[in-house]
Amino acid sequence: MKNRGCRTSQFLPNKKHEKRSKTKKKENLGKKQKNKGELSSVDRNGGVSYVDRISELPDGILVSILSCLLLKEAAATSVLSRRWRDLWASTMNLNFEDEKNLSDFMEVKPNIQHRKRRSFVSLVDRVLQQHTGPLIEQFRACFFLDRRFARSIDGWIEFAMKKRVQILELEFSAANVKDNYTFPHELLGLETGSSRKDLHSSIPSRHFSECSMGFKSVKVLNLRHVDVSGEGLEYFLMNSPVERLSVVAAKSLVDLRVVSPSSAWKYLAIENCPDLKTIQICNADIISFTYIGVAIDLLLSNVPLLAEVSITELEIESNNFFDSITISVELPFTQLSCYLSQLKYLTMDISEAVYNQDYVFPILANLKHLELICEPHYASALRYLTSFMKASPYLQRLVLKMNIITSWLEVMGIGKTDMEEIVTTEQMETVAKCPHHKLKVIEIVGYRARRFAAKHVMLLLKNAVALEKLVIDPVRHRSRGPSMVKEDIDEEMKARNHAMKHLKKIVPSTVKFVCL
Amino acid sequence: MKKISVRTSDGQEFELEENLAMESATIKTSLDAFSRDDIILLPNVNSWEMVKIIEFFTKVQELETKFGVKFMEKKEGRFLEAFQAEFDKDLSDDNLYCLLWTVDYLGIEVLLENLCHLMAERTKNKTVESCRNLFGVQHDYTPEEEAEIREDYSWAFEGPEIEE
Q1: Testing the interface with A: which of B46, B119, B134 to mutate, by most A Cβ within 10 A?
Q2: Helix axes A59-68, B109-123, angle to 10 degrees
Q3: Quick one: pLDDT at residue A436?
Q4: What is the per-residue pLDDT across B87-142, written as a single tens digit (0 to 9) for each?
Q5: N or C end: fewer C-beta atoms under 10 angstroms in chain B?
């Protein structure tokens, strides 16, 4: 059996399990009657009709159970009995996320915000002191923290490393990326003689070897609003068996060049790193790649297993008056040209994209699942949609996600003209000419009540002749991490009603219609 | 595929496919030590438990085909949900304890983890008293001891915010 810290059972065949005689009390039998105890389990000894109760289970299993609970619930079991007093302290999962505080954090005044931050940090510090188990699987801290709490956070990371953490997630948030907490690079195993002044941390050097050993256990690393350099990440990818790496909003990430990394590495996600210029990946077994941010130099070579890509590259043109932001579909297609035919999953944000009629879409021969994030105004997405569908003949599932940020024009009441929303007969004809024979499921997420929504959906239905299911989901899902957007429940209700009223009747009987 | 025969405590015999039998560390050790043609005796395993275990393996294979993922090799959220939905309704609390024992004895990691999740679900949102009843735990603290614990771990008993 895998040797996990607290597991005590090492059973050989034919050996009876050791019962904890301390807790085997006669009173338990009395308690058993209180339950609707249909003694449905026949005992194994063939004699006494006695049922093993949960406290008879070995420590290891109880700890596994406690590890599935929320931290507070797990710690509350300490009052059950003496046996349970310290069990929770061996929990394998330390997940610090204060749901209630997260949702109303942005509503309160700055001084209260800071008080909440300090509370959160104190809580984590306290719990870590009380944790006694030798190993942990997950450490996650999710709150609006920045470099002001560096000393504590350094301590948390040191703690996690010492306990051979496998999943390390630091999901912070800062108003400005330059206030980000900086990851202590020494822990990654980099020489302390690094010339970068901003990589200073408060961890004394004698702890380094112990901590960098701990890094060899990390399988998943998620950093949000935590500064880390390309150099640090490269070292990490080369020298540890990490499987999934995600970096969001790191200011010091400028270049990431990974050549022949550890073969365990399968998943990379980089988002919103404002100064990033280059990503180069060479000779890697990576399966999934996500990049969202400004247009970069993307160099991929020898990545034969790449099957899932989510990519959105923004091109910013500065004018005299304003920054115009457009999303280019052509750029990623060019950068990924060698791998387009092997992709099975593709996600792109086309909401600010400018449609180029003359661009010839490459064929996505293996694409099974396509997700497009588009503007609430369907019409602009439709032009892209037809091109994408033509380019992916084997597509089975299409998901359209309506962009979460309502354009300021909408808010001001200046919607796009009705003209733009109208589906032209020309478009209908083009679509009718090349129907899609494989598309089985269409999902529209973030659906909103619009005048021409029904017509647009009809267009989709006309195109997808093999469609089996249409799902309408009015809820716009949030991204991970401390979020600052409140969902609009009213809009969702209106959308639901609109869908049931207008869409249901145009959906043919061969298609299952689901409105969530 | 080779079949392995096992006999449970009440004399019933079951045939398991070899690759499934090998998921049990205990059975695997037996097989390594003895010939594969012998019947493996499992005096600590009851037949109803064996039935449940086989049910689990069958379900895993179904879900693997449906989702196209090798669930045995990694923890998957979707599998967990599907598993809980299927297994939760027929198992009484007592049965769950017994099954946990047995699966731990047999050393079937994947199933053990899922059963722990099931048990954890049953304890969520319960008061301390009802937890005691559920688990059959004997309260053995003096009032002073209990007060001390509640003080030490006050963060677990209070609301979300701790004023420092």
Answers
A1: B119
A2: 60
A3: 85
A4: 777 778 788 888 888 888 888 887 888 888 888 888 877 777 777 777 777 778 88
A5: N
* Helix A59-68 with B93-106: angle, nearest 10 deg: 120
Beta strand residue intervals within A208-318, DSSP E: 220-224, 226-227, 244-248, 255-259, 267-271, 278-282, 288-294, 297-301, 308-318
3-state secondary structure chain B: CCEEEEEECCCCEEEEEHHHHCCCHHHHHHHHHCCCCCCEEECCCCHHHHHHHHHHHHHHHHHHHHHCCCCCCCCCHHHHHHHHHHHHCCCCHHHHHHHHHHHHHHCCHHHHHHHHHHHHHHHCCCCHHHHHHHHCCCCCCCHHHHHHHHHHCHHHHCCCCCCC
Rounded CA-CA distance A282/A261 in Å is 8
Q: What is the CA radius of gyration of chain A?
A: 27
Total-model pTM: 0.80
Task: Give, rounded to a whole angstrom, the gap between the first and last alpha carbons of chain A.
Answer: 43
User: Which residues in B lie closer than 8 A to residue A81 (C-beta atoms)?
Assistant: 132, 137-141
Distances (CA, A) of A273 to A153, A225, A227, A257, B99: 21, 9, 10, 15, 49
Distance CA A281, CA A256 (A): 8
Give the distance from residue B151's alpha carbon to the nearest chain A alpha carbon, in angstroms: 11
Distance separating alpha carbons of residues A502 and A500, to the nearest angstrom: 6
Average pLDDT over residues B62-84: 65
Distances (CA, A) of A41 to A45, A50, A471: 12, 10, 44
Q: Which of A56, A65, A72 sits opposite B116 (nearest CB)?
A: A65
SS3 for A450? Answer: coil
Asked if A13 lies within 8 A of B123 by C-beta distance, the reply is no
Distance of alpha carbon A86 from its chain centroid, rounded?
A: 32
Do B156 and A34 lie within an 8 Å CB cutoff?
Answer: no
Mutate to test the interface with A, among B125, B133, B146, B149 (most CBs of A within 10 A): B149
Burial label for A277, CB within 10 Å (0-12, 13-18, 19+), is middle
| DSSP single-letter state for residue A466 | T
Q: What are phi and psi of B88, to 5 degrees?
A: -65, -40
Q: What is the ipTM of this complex?
A: 0.85
Nearest to B120 by CA among A70, A99, A60: A70
B17 touches chain A (CB under 8 A): no
Name the residue with higher pLDDT: A450 or A257.
A257
Whether residue A11 and residue B133 make contact (CB cut-off 8 A), yes or no, is no
Q: How far apart are CA A220 and CA A246, in angstroms?
A: 8
Query: Kind and range of the H or E element at A380?
Result: helix A378-391
